[in-house]
Design goal:
Helix content of chain B: 25-40%
Low-confidence stretches of chain A: none
Distance between the termini of chain A: 62 Å
Strand content of chain B: 15-25%
Distance between the termini of chain B: 47 Å
CATH superfamily of the largest domain in chain B: PRC-barrel domain
Strand content of chain A: under 5%
CATH class of the largest domain in chain B: Mainly Beta
CATH class of chain A: Mainly Alpha
Structural class of chain B: alpha+beta
Largest sheet of chain A: none
Oligomer: heterodimer
Order of helices and strands of chain A: HHHHHHHHHHHHHHHHHH
Largest sheet of chain B: 7 strands, mixed
Shape of chain B: elongated
CATH architecture of the largest domain in chain B: Roll
Number of domains of chain B: 3
């Protein structure tokens, strides 16, 4: 009995990696900013939405992971084979643009995080870009995976800063009771929370790394468990970010516009350690996402167009793969160094491209996962379809709403 | 001739089909293909008209070009049938799929297909895997401004002749003759292993099917243990057993040792008794001892055999055996008494017995000897193979220098597959 249990645990650890890394990287600079602002602006009032987002995240990611295991192909490859070359090009072009902007926002997270410690961005951003490229290209993916997983440990800094903010837990739990405010700010914030948690790059990255890991079909349920735990972990961290800013900034009525402002504002209210941990978490998250997003972009494009790819290749064997990877990193880090850059505009473009892309990808995924030729007996069941159609439908409607509100606001 | 020259499949899709009188029948949606003498033959144009998709047989076509396709008979005379599930479709089953470029030994994607009339038949002659194909598919070629046109003109042609590809869709593999398989089998096992490692389970199966178990047996040991195990675990046990039988016994033992006990036993039940015994013996030894490194495949002969007899014996058995550099000489009780190098056989007269030319100062180790010890001895005496003997000095196996190298530098194995 006990032995069997340990065997199961062991198998579980052999599949761990893809979903956990995807989930942690999901709380990137943009995510941290959004949650910090949500906490400062609405207090615990959006925690119930976080609960629903966790469920949607789990449902969507489970589909990605199942498709990866069953087909042995990444999402880019499947889209190419099912939907042809034109739609593939459209989707991947949008993905490239969207991911460049996601990477820009993460490099600015790196910049802002270090600036809190008094180091200027003109030093930190180029060094970080170089460091990221070197680490990512140093060899086998399995090695890098371990580094990424290790990096996930640093997210616990948010849990600690949540506690350091000394919240009144009774108040916190009340936030899980659904409530709604019909103000534009509230709605925009809620949708932004969804948009920053459920992203297009995530589907490509998760499916791709599951394929790379070669998870066996007989271990499907272990991967599913990992996906669920990973989704929970993402929003567990998000929960503490909201708690940290609500218990302090919201209470004192301090408004913030970014993660670094949150970190600064935390210092006098919750002590310098709380502020320090918050900033450290931001740097770590930004570096992690700046490594993963360019990597997944390059993998997805190369797979769809049949170009050689793989970190264990030499440059001359996979020139396009490395060029795209380096290109995304270099372009994004250079843009961050433009002195007059408006971060609000960057976030807006990033949200818009992601917003256009997400419905497309969700629709593609639902078609693919119900295709008998591709998924065989592992297609969605009626119940799974019900959940995923409702989730995808809600996400699509909300995304369009965000796009509409965004354009109206500009 | 219904068409002069060469044309790409994508240039025909969506073009209209008219009957003898010029009346429109429908548009081209796809093609169906079947196996031909050298190239796959296009048997039907799949056209879309009211009522769905229909097959227009090649024999019905008078001529076609980039603008339209003309039928031989009139709309009323044409009796078209609907396609079935079994048909191999060009657009649906070949286009956009992954294939193996045999010469480059890499995976590529089909961007377009080149066709031409060969004899009386329309054949797929080449696969476009380049940028040009992509642009053509998207209708972006030959359009736009001067700058764009110059840019497109500068793009390289990336065409692979049909003879040098290996499809991976089980359905499409039927379109390939045995020629490419042979070409693929001539590729270095590293390259085959490299491709194999990148395929999805279904594609792996289809590749194994098409290039044969023996080639796979050669390629498998080139992969790292984890990948080997993954591939073998997915195979049917009969097939896995056949592959393991074809592998050198030491590699087979290593692989079986890495599998789960359950799976290993299942496979061993399907293997020949003799092979299983050899493998089982090897399995008893720890990986880092002489016993774990050795193979039980070697040549041991009696001292009274002549050089000439030895050479004819080698001619018969050598193809099966991994290493014939050194021939070991044993007495009637299989005890090791000396060795002869293959060089010795060439420089001595054909009628001299092995006993007269053999070297009696033979170095050997016991199966328990440490791997480092083995490496030291081989380095010290410049040996390509080192015999392993039991307590009674009976020859039970040999260690070859490549296995020692791998033991000393485990990372080499992982690295070499990318070169």
């Amino acid at each position: 009995m006990v032995k069997k249990f340990f065997k199961k645990i062991l198998i579980f650890f052999s599949v761990v990696g893809p979903a956990f890394i995807t989930s942690t990287a999901d709380n990137d600079a943009g995510g941290i900013a959004t949650y910090a602002i949500a906490g400062a602006q609405e207090g615990y009032g959006l925690l119930w939405a976080l609960f629903l987002i966790t469920i949607s995240l789990a449902v969507i990611q489970e589909m990605s992971s199942r498709m990866g295991i069953v087909t042995g192909q990444g999402l880019g490859g499947l889209i190419r084979e099912k939907f042809g070359v034109r739609l593939t090009l459209l989707v991947l072009f949008l993905l490239l643009i969207a991911n460049i902007f996601v990477t820009i926002s993460n490099f600015s997270g790196v910049a802002a995080g270090f600036e809190l410690f008094g180091i200027p961005r003109y030093i930190t951003v180029p060094i970080c870009a170089f460091f990221i490229f070197k680490t990512v290209t140093m060899g086998k993916y399995s090695k890098i995976e371990k580094i990424f997983l290790f990096s996930a440990l640093f997210y616990t800094s948010y849990v600690i800063s949540g506690f350091l903010a000394k919240p009144e837990w009774k108040e916190v739990w009340k936030g899980f009771i659904p409530s709604f405010k019909a103000t534009t700010d509230y709605i925009v914030l809620m949708i932004a929370m969804i948009g920053t948690t459920i992203t297009p790059w995530m589907q490509f990255y998760l499916q791709g790394s599951i394929v790379d890991k070669r998870v066996k079909i007989s271990h499907l349920k272990y991967s599913t468990t990992e996906v669920y735990l990973g989704s929970f972990f993402t929003d567990f961290i998000a929960f503490f970010i909201i708690v940290a800013t609500s218990a302090t900034l919201f209470k004192k009525g301090i408004m913030i516009n970014s993660a670094e402002e949150a970190a600064l504002a935390l210092a006098p209210l919750a002590g310098k350690y709380c502020s320090f941990l918050f900033a450290l978490g931001l740097i770590n998250a930004s570096v992690l996402a700046s490594s993963i997003v360019p990597l997944s972009t390059s993998y997805a494009i190369c797979e769809a167009f049949g170009w050689e790819s793989g970190l264990d290749k030499k440059f001359k064997d996979a020139p396009l793969f490395f060029s795209i990877l380096a290109g995304v990193i270099v372009i994004s880090s250079l843009i961050v160094l433009i002195p007059s850059l408006s971060l609000i505009k960057v976030m807006f473009i990033s949200q818009t491209t992601n917003g256009i892309l997400l419905p497309l990808i969700l629709i593609f995924m639902l078609i693919l996962i119900n295709d008998r030729k591709i998924m065989g007996d592992y297609r969605n069941s009626f119940f799974q379809n019900l959940i995923s159609f409702v989730t995808a439908g809600a996400l699509i409607i909300l995304t369009f709403l965000l796009l509409y509100l965004g354009f109206k606001g500009i | 001739m219904r068409f002069e020259g060469e044309i790409f499949v994508s240039e025909l899709i969506g073009k209209k089909v008219v009957d003898r009188g010029g009346e429109r029948i429908g548009v081209i949606k796809d093609f169906t293909a079947s196996r031909g003498d050298i190239f796959p033959v296009i048997d039907n144009f799949v056209i879309k008209k009211e009522g769905g998709l229909f097959l227009l047989p090649w024999e019905e076509i008078e001529l076609f070009n980039r603008e339209f396709t003309l039928c031989k008979s009139s709309k009323e005379e044409l009796k078209l049938r609907k396609p079935t599930e079994e048909e191999i479709f060009v657009m649906k089953d070949i286009m956009d799929k992954q294939i193996v470029d045999i010469n480059g030994a890499k995976l590529v994607r089909v961007n377009d297909l080149k066709i031409r009339e060969v004899g009386e038949k329309l054949c797929i002659i080449a696969v476009d895997v380049g940028f040009r194909g992509l642009l053509r598919r998207m209708g972006l070629k030959g359009k736009g401004g001067k700058f764009w046109k110059t840019l497109v003109k500068g793009l390289p042609y990336d065409l692979i002749s049909w003879g040098f590809i290996q499809p991976l869709e089980p359905k499409v593999t039927k379109l390939v003759l045995s020629i490419p398989k042979d070409v693929l089998s001539q590729q270095h096992p590293y390259d085959i292993a490299n491709i194999l490692a990148k395929l999805s389970p279904d594609e792996q199966e289809s590749l194994i099917e098409s290039i044969g178990l023996e080639k796979i047996a050669e390629a498998l040991p080139e992969l790292d243990e984890k990948r080997q195990v993954e591939i073998v675990e997915r195979l049917e046990k009969e097939k896995a057993a056949d592959i393991l039988e074809a592998m050198p016994p030491d590699e087979a033992a290593d692989l079986l040792g890495d599998l789960s006990d359950e799976k290993a036993n299942e496979i061993m039940k399907e293997m020949e008794k003799e092979v299983v015994e050899e493998v089982k013996e090897l399995l008893q030894h720890e990986d880092d001892t002489a016993g774990g490194l050795m193979t039980t495949e070697f040549i041991a002969l009696r001292p009274y055999m002549t050089v000439d007899e030895t050479l004819s014996f080698l001619r018969l058995t050598a193809p099966e055996i991994e290493n014939i550099n050194t021939i070991y000489i044993v007495d009637e009780n299989e005890r090791l008494i000396g060795f002869v190098s293959i060089r010795d056989l060439f420089i001595n007269p054909p009628d001299s017995p092995l006993s007269s030319i053999m070297n009696q100062k033979v170095k050997s180790v016991s199966p328990e000897s440490d791997g480092m010890e083995v490496a030291k001895i081989m380095a010290k005496y410049n040996l390509l193979t080192l015999p392993v003997v039991d307590k009674e000095n009976k020859l039970i196996g040999i260690i070859t220098v490549d296995d020692v190298l791998e033991f000393m530098l485990p990372s080499i194995k992982k690295r070499k597959k990318f070169q």
